[in-house]
Amino acid sequence: MIDSHCHLFFDNLSNKIDEIIKNAISSQITAILTINTNPDHFTKHYNLIDKYKSIFISYGLHPDEVNDLNLLSSNEIDSFCNLDKVIGIGETGLDFFHSIENKTLQIKSFENHIESSYKNDLPLIIHQRNSEKEIIDILKFYIKSKPLKIVFHCFTGSKILMNFCIDNNFYMSLSGIVTFKNADDLRNIIKNIPIELLLIETDSPFLSPVPKRGKQNEPSNVKYIAEYLSNFYDIPIQEFILNTDNNFYKLFSKAIRYNGISL
User: Fold this and answer.
1) Which of 80, 133, 182, 214 is the most buried (most CB within 10 A)?
2) Which helix (H) or strand (E) is 198 found in, with range?
3) How many Å apart are CA 40 and CA 55, to the nearest integer?
């Protein structure tokens, strides 16, 4: 199975990266996509995982990190997209949970990532928080002329967003949130996601799934999400894993499909 979204560069994972990878291999995790959120960290982030086969990375600027001084142009994003392990762009998107002060900058950053996605034929990894309408409106504008490859990571959206994704063949990635006791509303929505548009992720070091709540999250814990969702969708676990693995490589088509993680 595959952890399609985590943050291996964050201190509590990068400080023990060899142990984290060993745990993932022991849990039969065959690939990991670690997400870049700040271009200033990218080189060190890339070097952290460069020696491992089947660990990939994205390039982008998280909407919470956007400011007047670090706005990425599409050309700046392009310059990193030819690296072997860069298989996606982001995470990008819009986050208006804390403030809308930099709304205009976030939108411009999002649009630059979209333009780079078109030019490099790499999928967008979208972060959405309190911004469904704005994201849908922006994407509707772009896909009028040409389809986009997209995954909404850590999907917690409404039925409107889910149906928008289904209508446009956008992927939705589910995290440990689906295992939480208070996630009934989310479970009621995601029951209608087609298996062919589904990915799974840990978003580690955040959002540890049941039964690891209260502990640090890591890629090996994606197995608990897979087990939970195979029961939720009433799909045998191996069939569920095969489908979500295939979805990952269909979306992230630049990724080389190895048998597992290794040096």
Assistant:
1) 80
2) strand 198-200
3) 20
Instruction: Give pLDDT, residue 101.
Output: 86
10 Å Cβ neighbour count for 37? Answer: 22
Distance of CA 169 to the CA centre of its chain: 16
Cα angle 262, 127, 189; round to 5? 100
Q: Is 39 exposed, middle or buried (0-12, 13-18, 19+ CB in 10 A)?
A: middle
DSSP 53: B
Q: What are phi and psi of 55, to 5 degrees?
A: -115, 120
- Token pair 């990915």 is found at 199
The amino acid occupying position 25 is I
Quote the CA–CA distance of 216 and 206 in Å, as a whole number: 7
pLDDT in tens, 146-183: 999 999 999 999 999 999 999 999 999 999 999 999 99
CA distances from 122 to 77, 84, 114, 151, 206 (A): 11, 12, 10, 11, 25
**Tens-digit pLDDT profile for residues 1-32:** 999 999 999 999 999 999 999 999 999 999 99
169: which 2 tokens? 């063949």
The values of phi and psi at residue 148, to 5°, are -120, 150
Cα 19 from chain centroid (whole Å): 22
Structure tokens at 156: 């917690």
Residues 88 and 149: their CA atoms lie apart, in Å, by 10
Residues 249, 200, 155, 189, CA torsion sign: positive
> What pLDDT shows up at residue 34?
98
The DSSP element (H or E) to which 25 belongs, if any, is: helix 17-26
User: In order of start, what are the domains of the chain with their CATH numbers?
Assistant: 2-251 (3.20.20.140)
C-alpha distances out from residue 67 to 62, 79, 101, 108, 184, Å: 11, 21, 10, 11, 36
